[in-house]
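Hey team,

Filing this mostly as a record. A colleague (T.K.) asked me to run one chain through the structure pipeline before their review meeting, and I want the input and output archived in the tracker in case anyone asks later how it was produced. No errors, nothing strange. Just documentation.

Input sequence:
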Amino acid sequence: MALEFQEWSKLEDKLTAGHDDIKDVGDLQFRDTFIPRIGVEYEFEPGIGFSGGIAYQESPLETGVNKEINYLDARRTIFGLGFHATAQRVYGFAHPVRFDLAYQYHAIGERDFRLISDQTGNNDRVKTDGDVNVFAASISMQF
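Output structure:
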């Protein structure tokens, strides 16, 4: 279990006027966020196990208005599952080798945005919403 604090409001201090499109053109405002996470891992044999978890992440964007910058972000709920196995002896390797497979499902929340462009005269309304599926695999040597 974890609770992560992201201090996005400090980013505005780091963006230098005259040198950054986010500050100069977009005038984007950010807010601080907390990200709660909870997960479990079960190793049913030495070196072989499963893991799973869930997290909730709010968008740090203060408003849904983007001027000249198409920065879209919405809240999301993330579900993850994983499997790992460690082989102690693999031909040609002097150290154990770990194999990992992972899956994440991101449920993107619905949020309305207004994209404004002085150059093109656009004043479009768009909406974020949907699902993202992520698959990952890795092989690593432990030494």
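Quick notes for T.K.: The helical segments are 11-14, 21-26. The first strand starts at residue 2 and ends at 6.
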